[in-house]
């Protein structure tokens, strides 16, 4: 009987820490979604900073926090980008949750593993972009799209991966110090 009370307190404390993580990273996502929709361009394309943050949160904080931050990030990218609600919340949620889940299954939590996951997220993001092109254009020139859109978009995404990883890792360390 006494063990149940202790485990219930631990679960409530764990939920509070998860809530604190999600709130802090959601504020960062909201600020960076404004940055992402601005006129800032790398290699002629806007970098997917929010997607990078979502995958870092999933990788560092776990699949629940990654999924929640992915939904928040997807909604804010769609809302600020004024395209209406599209598949971004679902895609971002899957990327955040997937990075957290696959971390438990396959690789350890270190910088090299995050680079590997980020490459996979960048490739999947390029596939979604290619799907948008295929859906919205009549004739599809794969070589032109690959050269003018997919490669610069992937390079702009990967450019922010180390910065975002160390920023999210540092914030998570601060949250863990507060937890203790």
What would you say this structure looks like, in words?
The protein is 82% helix and 0% strand. Helix 2 packs antiparallel against helix 3 (63-80) and helix 5 (111-136) runs antiparallel to helix 6 (142-159). It has seven helices and no strands. The chain is globular. It has 180 residues and is mostly helical.
Count of DSSP strands: 0
Q: Spans of 5+ residues with little confidence (pLDDT < 50)? A: 1-8
Report the average pLDDT across residues.
Answer: 80
- Work out the radius of gyration: 18 Å
Terminal Cα separation, in Å? 26 Å
Largest sheet: none
How many helices in DSSP terms?
Answer: 7
Q: Which range does the strand content fall in?
A: under 5%
Gross morphology is: globular
Q: Give the ordered list of helices and strands.
A: HHHHHHH
Helix/strand structural class: mainly alpha
Q: What proportion of the residues is helical, as a percent range?
A: over 70%
């Amino acid at each position: 009987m006494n063990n149940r009370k202790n485990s219930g307190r631990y679960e409530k404390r764990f939920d509070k820490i998860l809530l604190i993580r999600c709130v802090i990273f959601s504020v960062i996502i909201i600020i960076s979604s404004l940055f992402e929709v601005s006129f800032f361009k790398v290699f002629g394309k806007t970098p997917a900073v929010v997607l990078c943050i979502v995958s870092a949160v999933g990788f560092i904080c776990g699949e629940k926090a990654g999924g929640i931050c992915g939904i928040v990030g997807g909604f804010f990218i769609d809302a600020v980008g004024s395209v209406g609600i599209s598949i971004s919340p679902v895609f971002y949620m899957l990327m955040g949750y997937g990075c957290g889940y696959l971390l438990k299954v396959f690789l350890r939590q270190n910088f090299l593993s995050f680079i590997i996951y980020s490459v996979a997220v960048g490739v999947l993001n390029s596939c979604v972009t290619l799907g948008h092109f295929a859906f919205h254009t009549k004739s599809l020139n794969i070589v032109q799209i690959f050269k003018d859109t997919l490669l610069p978009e992937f390079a702009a995404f990967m450019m922010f991966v180390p910065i975002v990883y160390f920023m999210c890792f540092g914030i998570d360390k601060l949250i863990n110090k507060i937890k203790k």
